[in-house]
Amino acid sequence: MWGDKVETYLNNYKGYKIAFTGHSLGGAIASLTALKARHLGLVDVDKLTLYTFGEPRIGDSDVAKNFRDLVKESYRVVHYSDLVPHLPLCDGFFSDSCTEKAGWPHHQPQEIWYYNTDLTMDNSKFKICDANGGEDPNCSDGISVLEFAKNIGTDRGADMHLHYYDHKLDEYGPKGCNSAVKFGLSFIALIFLFIFNLIKH
Fold first, then answer.
1. Mean pLDDT, to the nearest integer, of 117-122?
2. How far apart, in whole angstroms, are the C-alpha atoms of residue 88 and residue 127?
3. Does domain 2-200 correspond to CATH entry 3.40.50.1820?
4. H/E element holding 12?
5. Which residues carry out catalysis?
6. Which residues pair with 163 in a beta bridge?
7. Has this prediction a pTM greater than 0.70?
8. For the chain, which residues make up each domain, given as ranges?
9. pLDDT given at position 175
10. Which of these, 124, 133, 9, lies nearest to 61 by C-alpha position?
11. What's the chain look like in SS3?
């Protein structure tokens, strides 16, 4: 996809403003694509914008630092206690203790955190988080382990992941996604938690 689509497009539209966007895994792909485009010099820093929604971590603290330097206008939107932005786990647990250790998952900046606890995203209830660090304990990283446990045990975490800006994202596409997505997200979160705790011990 890179060579015959993205790279060709970027070469054909040099000097244009480019925006990459995506939700969930699509957000991770958009971030990595934006990073590669900048790294290869295909887009000028002032011509690139990135918007992601519910994006998982894509690298460690070294990747996050390089990302911050290469992709200056980057906005990573998180809907309250959406589980996916906390995967892979940065320290073996859902918490605010994500440190800048090489090899450990770490987000790139800049998080925009919508902190209302229902499925709406009220435009008066958001916080622009640390512009230099991707793991701000005063934003979604500050949500308690108990809150995430409630999400894993119910559909709430998956619902937060599938609702952005009052749109239910699993209704998009030719057929949409079914309820298996909710079960899958909770199951994946539990597996990551289990595996990471095994690795650490």
1. 83
2. 23
3. yes
4. helix 7-12
5. 24, 82, 161
6. 168
7. yes
8. 2-200
9. 56
10. 133
11. CHHHHHHHHHHHCCCCCEEEEEECHHHHHHHHHHHHHHHCCCCCHHHEEEEEECCCCCECHHHHHHHHHHCCCEEEEEECCCCHHHCCCCCCCCCCCCCCCCCCCECCCCEEEECCCCCCCCCCCEEECCCCCCCCCCCHHHCCHHHHHHHHHCCHHHHHHHEECCEEHHHCCCCCCCCHHHHHHHHHHHHHHHHHHHHHC
Contacts of 134 (CB under 8 A, 6+ apart): 64, 68, 76, 106, 107, 108, 109, 110, 111
Cα–Cα distance for residue pair 105/174, rounded to 1 Å: 33
CA distance 150 to 200: 24
What pLDDT digit, counting tens, does each position of 95-111 carry?
Answer: 556 778 788 899 999 99
Task: Look at 89-93, 127-131, 140-144, 147-151 and tell me which has the smallest mean pLDDT.
Answer: 89-93
Q: What is the pLDDT of residues 134-158, one digit of tens each?
A: 899 899 998 888 887 777 777 787 8
Q: How many CB atoms lie within 10 A of CB 68?
A: 17
E-assigned strand segments in 47-114: 48-53, 74-79, 111-114
The angle subtended at Cα 190 by Cα 186 and Cα 195, nearest 5°, is 150
